[in-house]
Automatic annotation (TrEMBL):
SUPFAM superfamilies: Spectrin repeat (SSF46966). One of its GO terms (cellular component) is cytoplasm. It comes from Eumeta variegata. This is Dystrophin. Residues 127-137 have a biased composition (Polar residues).
Length: 137
């Protein structure tokens, strides 16, 4: 009976950690989604595009930093769901799936926006920022 109590305690602890981690990452995703939704379209001003590119690089870094947290949460969720009833297991799997889908959408969107800003700020779009050399004939 003692081993069973210990496993139950571990399962309850893991369940609490999972719920807390899920809530934290969900909040972070909501905040980040809101930040992305408020981003302006690519500018026609070189300096603004340059700043927008830096903003996209920062967003990608934030997403990369959270990748480990997402993986850990996924592992913990699978571990917790193994000790649950089938209906609870399905609910946990759906929560994980929805969270991963949101994270992937943010990552894909960040890559697309960076690509858009890079192509919008290409050499053809803006005059060269360095001084031109004039050749006199």
């Amino acid at each position: 009976m003692n081993e069973r109590d210990r496993r139950l305690d571990v399962a309850l602890l893991q369940s609490g950690k999972f719920k807390e981690a899920l809530a934290g990452l969900s909040k972070w995703l909501s905040d980040t989604e809101e930040m992305v939704a408020n981003q302006k379209p690519p500018s026609s001003d070189y300096k603004v595009v340059k700043a927008q590119l830096q903003e996209q690089k920062f967003l990608k870094k934030m997403l990369l930093d959270r990748q480990h947290s997402m993986s850990s949460l996924s592992s913990l969720g699978k571990e917790v769901s193994n000790h649950c009833e089938p209906s609870e297991r399905a609910a946990i799997e759906k929560q994980l799936h929805d969270l991963m889908k949101r994270f992937d959408a943010l990552t894909d969107g960040a890559e697309q926006r960076e690509h858009d800003r890079r192509s919008h700020g290409s050499c053809e779009t803006f005059p060269r920022q360095n001084k031109s050399i004039r050749i006199l004939a």
